Every structure is written in structure tokens, then in C-alpha cells.
Amino acid sequence: MKIFVEKKTKGNNYSFYFLVAVIFLYFLLFFFNPEKAYNALKASGNIFIQIIPVLLLVILLMALINYFLYPKTVAKYAGKGSGIKGWFLAISAGIISHGPIYVWYPLLKELRDHGMRNGLVAAFLYSRAIKVPLLPLMVYYFGALFVVVLLPYIVIASLVEGEIIELIESRK
What we know:
Layout: H1 14-32, H2 34-68, H3 71-78, H4 83-96, H5 105-113, H6 118-127, H7 135-142, H8 144-171
């Protein structure tokens, strides 16, 4: 599968160096303060366990995109000629997406490599501020009127942000 293969180029080993540096720092911390090292590893493990489901979902989505979607299809729904349909899809997908944002980055890069506009990527990222499962909690704390007024502003702001990204790109 293409998603798991990364081209090896000179200077492309930053992630490896970062991993080695983190492991070295954990060993160093272990020698100076074993209890803190253990607590740090435990906290890291807990975070990893929490993101596994979302990470697996994103990997599955990336595999499905690579298998079923062709650059022409992505360009049709999220490319230059996608129009309002592309904005609607990007914002809707951003609203319903869950989990930590950093696990969505590889999927968005893959879509961008297939032809998705950067403005739509920005709209997706911005519209993630709307969390459907947390809306009742937001209504409880801030009231229904506040939520009803705020949500359209978030959607409008995601459109504006996406347009600004595209405007900046067109000037390059």
C-alpha cells in the first residue's frame, strides 16, 4: 500500500532523530529520577491507548482512500472545480470528525496529494471547533441562544479562513 511507504531522501530522517532523542531523554530521566520517568511513560502510554481507536480509523480511511479514490474523484469533489459542494463536504467532515487533530494530518495530506484544495483543508481544520457530542454541554453552560448564534459564525469563519488560504496561494 502506498500510504505506508515513504520515499527515502537525504535529510528525511527527522522523525527517526526525534524518536532517538526522546528515548535518550527518557533514559536520562530514568537515571536521575526513576519515579518521574515511570510516571511520564505511564502518561504517554495512557495517551497512546486513548488515541489508538482514532488512529486506526484514520489509517483505515487512508487505506480506503488509496484503494477507492482516484485523483480525478478527489479533484471532482474537493479540487479546483468543486465549488460549493467541496466547501460543504470539507466543513461537514470537519464537524463530524473526532479525536486528536494530529491523527487527521496524514489523511488530509493524502487527500491534498490527490488534489484537494488547501482552502478546503483549512475549512476542515477550522470547523473541527464544532463538536457535535459536546453541543448539549455547551448549551447547558452557555445557553441555547449563544450556541445557535455561535455555530453559524464558526462555519462562516471556516469559509473565510479557507478563502484567505486560497487567496494567499493564488498570489504565490
